[in-house]
Every structure is written in C-alpha cells, then in structure tokens.
Automatic annotation (TrEMBL):
Residues 13-331 form the Enoyl reductase (ER) domain. GO terms for molecular function: oxidoreductase activity; RNA binding; zinc ion binding. It comes from Brevundimonas subvibrioides (strain ATCC 15264 / DSM 4735 / LMG 14903 / NBRC 16000 / CB 81). Belongs to the zinc-containing alcohol dehydrogenase family. Quinone oxidoreductase subfamily. The keyword Signal does not apply. Gene3D superfamilies: Medium-chain alcohol dehydrogenases, catalytic domain, NAD(P)-binding Rossmann-like Domain. It holds the Pfam family ADH_zinc_N. This is Zinc-type alcohol dehydrogenase-like protein. InterPro entries: ADH-like_C, ADH-like_N, ADH_Zn_typ-1, ER, GroES-like_sf, NAD(P)-bd_dom_sf, Quin_OxRdtase/zeta-crystal_CS, Zinc-ADH_QOR/CCCR. It is found in: Cytoplasm. Keywords: Acetylation, Cytoplasm, Metal-binding, NADP, Oxidoreductase, RNA-binding, Zinc.
Length: 334
C-alpha cells in the first residue's frame, strides 16, 4: 500500500525528511480495525517524532496519529464496530501511523465519526479531544459544577481550542485563555473563552490586571518552562497545574506553599501500556461526537492542505513548527 514515512531524523526544510514508499499491508490483532484512511491531521507529536525517530535500516517509519476513515475489516475479537462504519481516532505511538492508505487500530481507542462532519473535520478532533478531556477530568480532576476558574495557556492551539469548548459545554468553570496576537485572541473568544489575556508578559500580572481570580486549574499547553514561575504565583491555593509539553528541571518546589499540585498528561499512555481502562478513550470520543452532533462543539480545523503527498505533509509539519498555527491543519487521503 502507499505510505509516507520518515527515513531518519531530518529537519522539515529537508525534502528528504519524509519519503513516499510501498509499505506492507497491516496485520490485524484480535481487537483491531482495518481502516481505509480518508483524512489525517498534523499534531506537534508528528513533528517531534519525525525529528527523533531512527527507523530500522531500509524501512521508513510511518508517522501520523489523527485520522478518520472507513472500517474495511475487523479482528477476531472486535465487538464495537463493523465493516462500513465511519470512524475517527488518534492511534498509538508505538504502531505504524495514519500517513498511509490503510491502518490497523485497536477498537478500544476509536470512536464513531460525527455524521455532521467531513472526514477532514473529524480527523482534526481525536488527539486534541482526548488530551483535553484526560487533562481536565482524569489528571486535574476538575468538577463539572464548580464555581472556579480554568486558565488555558495557549488557547488558540489544537488542544486549547477543544479544551475551551469542552469546559464551556459540560462544566460551570470560568474559562480564561491566553494568546498574544489579535487573531489568536479572537479565535479563543470564538471558541467560547469568557476572557483572554496576553501571555507575552508575566501571566500572573495579566490575570491581576484583568481582574480575574486565582485559577484553581491551569492547563499549561505550551512554553511551560518560560511561564512556570508566573503560573506558580497565579495558581490558587490547593489548585493544580497540568502540562502536556516537554521540559526538564521545573522548580516544582514553588508549589509547596500553596500545596498546589502538578500533573502530566500524555494521551498515548493508556494504549502504550495497554491499561485496563484503555477503552475509556473510546468513551471519550463517543462523548465528543455526541457534543458535536448536538452543536455544542465544533472541529478546530482551520485549513485542509489537499491530498496527502510528501510535499503537503512536510508543509503541515513546517506550519506546526512555526508556532503560528491556529487550530488544526488536515490533509485528505494519500
């Protein structure tokens, strides 16, 4: 089958960073679906893995996590889906990805595609939706009816776009997002943020200047190392900061005087470790689809770059690396 993969760690401006090749057909495990991929979207993890993965000699590694498509075959133990179902999912980090004609994916991390969305719109949702849900409810343990504030650092990115919508749709939290540019600030308000502050300076000072109370929940989605000291000053007593980006050596001792917590969110953890509650990601995507069908959430897709080729996929990677992307970028089938 046709596929696009990385031959080894190369920068996105190198035309050889991705290559088109003929890949072996996926082999189904008992809980697997074989999906004919109709659209994919690009995430920061695609860029990170492309820049670090060292495939086996002579065999490029297929990247891509978000996808939407149609089930064409099922494994022996599949019970949630059947051939012909339209699905969306974020895949696994330790299996061949979605940048191919077909992909094998465990049904326990797959949801039914919302009927009102096109394949490209649906492909922009899974990874960021699961990340946002797990961060808010499974890691930070936010309550649905709390009279508290959620601060979303980097609200115009993919995860931020969904987290704002999710919190507004099913919680009573006041949602304050951060963004630096007029267009990203406008996007956060369009997603449903009650207020937006500028994160180009100290975030705690911006919160105070805006008259906002100390947030009990802080979703640190980007540049956490740069913002951490300000976030430690900003977080409410007994609050929690949840992060998704990569860094080392944070001064977490700054949280002790407030007995505030710090947690990580890594949406691949459940599938990577085959946890007993792995099917929770199927349930999350089912709820996201319900919210979309009810008109309470929308896809964060802002642009589809056309059919997936080496050139268009590299363009997607370059846009993510620029840090200027709003929402999500998708590509149609290879």
């Amino acid at each position: 089958m046709k596929a696009i993969g990385t031959p080894g760690p190369l920068p996105a401006d190198d035309p050889a960073a991705l290559v088109a090749f003929d890949a072996p057909e996926p082999v189904l495990k008992p809980h697997d679906l074989l999906v004919s991929v109709r659209a994919v979207s690009v995430n920061p993890v695609d860029v990170k893995v492309r820049g670090s993965r060292q495939p086996e000699a002579g065999q490029p590694s297929i990247l891509g996590y978000d996808a939407a498509g149609i089930v064409t075959a099922t494994g022996s133990d599949v019970s949630l889906f059947k051939v012909g179902d339209e699905v969306f999912y974020a895949g696994q980090i330790d299996r061949p990805g979605s940048n191919a004609e077909r992909q094998a994916v465990d049904e326990r991390i797959v949801g039914r595609k919302p009927e009102r969305l096109g394949f490209d719109e649906a492909a922009a949702l899974p990874l960021v939706s699961i990340t946002a849900w797990e961060l808010l409810f499974d890691r930070m343990h936010a309550g649905r009816d709390e009279d508290e504030t959620l601060l979303v650092v980097g609200g115009a990115g993919g995860v931020g776009s969904v987290l704002i919508q999710l919190a507004r749709a099913i919680t009573g939290l006041r949602v304050v997002a951060t963004a630096a540019r007029p267009e990203t600030q406008a996007w956060c308000l369009e997603m449903g943020a009650h207020a937006v502050i500028d994160h180009s300076g100290p975030i705690d000072e911006a919160l105070t200047a805006a008259g906002e109370r100390a947030p009990k929940y802080i979703a640190a989605l980007t540049h956490t190392t740069d913002h951490f000291e300000a976030l430690a000053r900003a977080v409410a007593v007994q609050g929690v900061i949840g992060a998704i980006d990569d860094f080392k050596g944070l001064p977490v001792e700054l949280l002790k005087p407030k007995t505030a917590g710090f947690v990580w969110e890594f949406m691949f953890a459940r599938s990577l470790h085959q946890t007993p509650d792995m099917i929770q990601q199927h349930h999350i995507l089912t709820e996201i689809a319900r919210l979309v069908e009810a008109g309470q959430m929308r896809s964060p897709l802002t642009e589809t770059l056309g059919a997936m080729t080496v050139e268009t996929l590299l363009e997607g990677h370059r846009r993510l690396q620029s840090g200027a992307t709003i929402g999500k970028v998708a590509l149609d089938a290879i």
